[in-house]
Design goal:
- By secondary structure, the protein is mainly α.
- It has a single domain (about 5-190), classed as CDP-alcohol phosphotransferase transmembrane (TM) domain (Four Helix Bundle (Hemerythrin (Met), subunit A)).
- It has helices spanning about 5-25, 40-65, 70-95, 100-120, 130-150, 160-190, and strands spanning about 30-35, 35-40.
- The chain has a two-stranded antiparallel sheet with strand order 1-2.
- A hairpin with a 2-residue loop joins strand 1 (about 30-35) and strand 2 (about 35-40).
- The protein is globular, with a radius of gyration of 18 Å.
- Belongs to the CDP-alcohol phosphatidyltransferase class-I family.
- It is found in: Cell membrane.
- Pathway: Lipid metabolism; Phospholipid metabolism; phosphatidylglycerol biosynthesis; phosphatidylglycerol from CDP-diacylglycerol: step 1/2.
Length: about 190
Amino acid sequence: MNIPNRITISRILLIPIFIVLMSVPFNWGDIAMGERELPVSHLAAAILFIIASTTDWIDGYYARKHNLVTNLGKFLDPLADKLLVSAALILLVEQGLAPGWIVITIISREFAVTGLRLVAAGEGIVLAASNMGKWKTTLQIVAISALLLHNWPFAYIGFPFGIITLYAAMIITVISGYDYFAKNWHVMRDSK
């Protein structure tokens, strides 16, 4: 249980707090943003989401820099990412801030790639994340953060940055999923 793995576990432990902040109707007030309002609980959830997302970069950087990459970390890190992103996307649909079909598309891709990774792991093959996969994750985090903040600061000028970024995240998510399967189809084909 090294430091990067502890950071990853802390990210997983932040998810229930994030869920409570988004789900429980705390009456902490609202922040006016042009014609829209941002509940303070959503602001707190957005900050927590951004902090948790940042720990993904921190644990990976620290593990590589200090040669602390472990099998536990290889398992927990993508799991933590998928749990955090899936929880946020589902809550955004529940709050009416994201279209359900986009969220279903993104989460379906995550399940499919995770399945491919599990088959590969069973064959003793480790499938590393691609650069496109890293772009996918970055776009998802930016889109989710913007939507959690009810499109702040873009709400002041009426520019739908959050939803545009979510569409871009979905497109790169689908493309990166296709790329992942195209490059690694031999794993499925040759599995026992």
